[in-house]
Amino acid sequence: xxxxxxxxxxxxxxxxxxxxxxxxxxxxxxxxxxxxxxxxxxxxxxxxxxxxxxxxxxxxxxxxxxxxxxxxxxxxxxxxxxxxxxxxxxxxxxxxxxxxxxxxxxxxxxxxxxxxxxxxxxxxxxxxxxxxxxxxxxxxxxxxxxxxxxxxxxxxxxxxxxxxxxxxxxxxxxxxxxxxxxxxxxxxxxxxxxxxxxxxxxxxxxxxxxxxxxxxxxxxxxxxxxxxxxxxxxxxxxxxxxxxxxxxxxxxxxxxxxxxxxxxxxxxxxxxxxxxxxxxxxxxxxxxxxxxxxxxxxxxxxxxxxxxxxxxxxxxxxxxxxxxxxxxxxxxxxxxxxxxxxxxxxxxxxxxxxxxxxxxxxxxxxxxxxxxxxxxxxxxxxxxxxxxxxxxxxxxxxxxxxxxxxxxxxxxxxxx
Length: 416
Fold this sequence. Notes:
alpha/beta, N-(1-d-carboxylethyl)-l-norvaline Dehydrogenase, domain 2, 17 helices, Rossmann fold, 11% strand, 48% helix
């Protein structure tokens, strides 16, 4: 059994180790006196707020006047609330608000030391933005993408300076969530990487360096959980029960409430929808999450989730169409299904060098996804369970433990 003090000591070491990057010991970060943020949506305004609260002047770029107006109002409101809650003094808040500049075109970023793109999550949009940045940004400026999944090197290929391009993946709300995944590509310059880490620390984040791969560290594992969650509800478990089991384990929010909050139509279009998945059928029925008042759950005026007969019928209909047998599940077997395949995927992430150390994965999930702190993170939890237990439970759910998982947990945990 983990003692609380032991877990806290482990987490403190993990956070300290995450910013110790081999090869960067003597690398000096570039100076960052100003920043630009492209996109005035939820992520862009959150990133801008985080920078402003650290006294970094920001130029926020947003073409749509209404979106820009909302962004300014939201940023100002957050900073003013920081005074009320005593996170900032009135003088600090006034300086932060004064340091916000806005513009409609990226040409206003020609003197920025750091530019963070937080635009629509498609490669074409991001390459267009970076191509334009390449023409106007000053020499030596860091060009960062807030992409959640896309290939950062492919984004960088639209510029003549891939050494200055990397990923800075913030988590929503970006002014609150502590994780910052810093994504390095094979072309990223050491001092560019050191600069992104330095900025992350400066704005109060917990930076973790990730390799350039689909979903990086956190979202690659999250994709596994989402797949398992949407499979298990076709096999007889209701979304509310899955969420309850996950929340009883210690997460603040289960996968289905989280999905409804984020929006089920992310990446979905009616033109390409085939009705092959639960999400597609929910979206086709207009159930796209909290923003439409209904997704996996129905929502009342206070956004309280309520079990939805319509959603349950859609799930049962898809299960019948696919010929999937429905059965009884224990809470323990539900939790294993939500957690253990993710841990197996994490072992592959380590073996591929996408994460430098297993404790980095714990920092990602503790600070980006609210993994239950008392367990120390997914990899610390895996060490607590042990190889034999995890392998037996994976086999019980019809999974073959990967060679990477066996090799990892059979060896002592390394410290770097």
